[in-house]
Amino acid sequence: MALDYKDYYAALGVEKKASQDEIQRAYRKLARKYHPDVNKDDGAEDRFKEITEAYEVLKDADKRKTYDQYGSAWKHAQASGGAPPGFENIRFEFGGGGAGASGFSSFFDALFGGGGGAGGFGGGGFGGFGDGAYQQRAMRGRNHEATLKLDLEEAVAGGKREITLSDGGRGRNKVEVNLPPGVKPGQKIRLSGRGGAAPPGGEAGDLFLKVELRPHPRFRLEGKDLHASVPITPWEAALGGQVSVPTLGSSVMIKLPSGSNTGKRIRLRGKGYPDRAGDGDLFIEFQIVVPSELSDEERELFEQLATASTFAPRE
After folding, report:
1. Using CA atoms, how far apart are residues 89 and 74, in angstroms rounded to an integer?
2. φ and ψ at residue 159, rounded to 5 degrees
3. What is the pLDDT along the chain (315 residues), one digit of tens a residue?
4. Neighbouring residues of 74: CB distance < 8 A, sequence distance ≥ 6
5. What is the C-alpha separation between 20 and 64, in angstroms, rounded?
6. Distance between CA atoms of 209 and 167, rounded to whole angstroms?
7. CA-CA distances (angstroms) from residue 40 to 140, 167, 225, 273, 298?
8. Of the candidates 180, 198, 197, 200, the residue with the CA atom closest to the CA atom of residue 188
9. Which of 88, 172, 215, 229 is most buried as measured by Cβ atoms within 10 A of its Cβ?
10. 0.70 cut: is pTM over it?
């Protein structure tokens, strides 16, 4: 019985013992050459599908190991956790000569017969993995992921934003993104059809933008709570009083208790990061600061305070 299989190593032009780096370099080189957006020659589409199918298997260590053992039947072996029926004593050799290349479906036609039959092997292929099923999947381009960096205020406000995408080194195009208000770091925004290109008649993949916030000069975001450090003078710390503190987009006056030390924290409920389940809180931490230079009058007053005060913090 002749066994037909697709030689993924030959498709990429690498040896069976090729490293992952060698496989990746080979794929990138061929993909640039045969990508349907670049190469309009007859057969370029099919060649691009062939090398993409090969790379999707060989780049994954587990899939590659199963493929090395079972050839084109690797999907069934991986799904079932063992050898497909009739494969117990079959091994495949890759590169040079080899069995015929009549395709995936002819392999199972030779093994099980062409009209379906026992075990649930229908005319469309082996357990849903025949030519028709593969072609349907292969027509869709790959999903891509990129980082979208935002300022804190941009993330809070949301709304429409224009970004520039690089089109695989062949040019740039602008696309409008509608950001939901209060988008958080790590959240992904899906742009349908903005991922990898597909062969003609197929559907392009999606682009997922992973949100990342730039450092803010005043606020630090933890979950949905905001944290800010506010400087105060020694006399404000000692006497207390009304102090202006920043919030998102504005500022508010709060009462600072007398005798407040560095590290004193005040919680402003609902003044943190917006969230549909309930806005976060804003935590203000006060830091006592002193002038780097003193006027003659200021120095005299501090000297008077030092003489009059009995405060001894280190005792």
Report:
1. 14
2. 95, -175
3. 333 457 888 889 999 899 999 999 999 899 888 887 778 888 888 898 889 988 988 998 888 887 877 676 666 656 655 555 444 444 444 443 333 333 333 333 333 344 433 333 333 333 333 444 444 445 778 888 888 899 999 999 888 888 877 655 555 678 888 888 899 999 999 888 888 777 776 788 888 899 999 999 999 999 999 999 999 999 999 999 999 999 988 899 999 999 999 999 999 999 999 888 889 999 999 999 999 999 999 999 999 999 999 988 888
4. 57, 63, 66, 67
5. 11
6. 15
7. 18, 18, 54, 51, 80
8. 180
9. 229
10. no
DSSP letter assigned to residue 182: T
Distance (Å, rounded) from C-alpha 267 to C-alpha 228?
Answer: 11
- Whether residue 284 contacts residue 303, with contact meaning beta carbons closer than 8 Å, is answered with no
Sign of the Cα torsion 58, 64, 67, 73 reads negative
In sequence order, what are the residues at sequence separation of 6 or more whose Cβ sits closer than 8 angstroms to the Cβ of residue 286?
Answer: 229, 230, 231, 232, 237, 256, 260, 262, 263, 264, 265, 266
What's the burial of 71, exposed, middle or buried (CB within 10 Å: 0-12/13-18/19+)? buried
**Residue 73 DSSP symbol:** G
Q: Yes or no: say if 73 and 87 are a contact pair by the CB < 8 Å rule.
A: yes
Residue 163's alpha-carbon distances to 108, 174, 307, in angstroms, are 48, 6, 63
Question: How many other C-beta atoms lie within 10 A of the C-beta of residue 200?
Answer: 8
109 to each of 69, 88, 95, 134, how far by Cα in Å?
20, 18, 23, 16
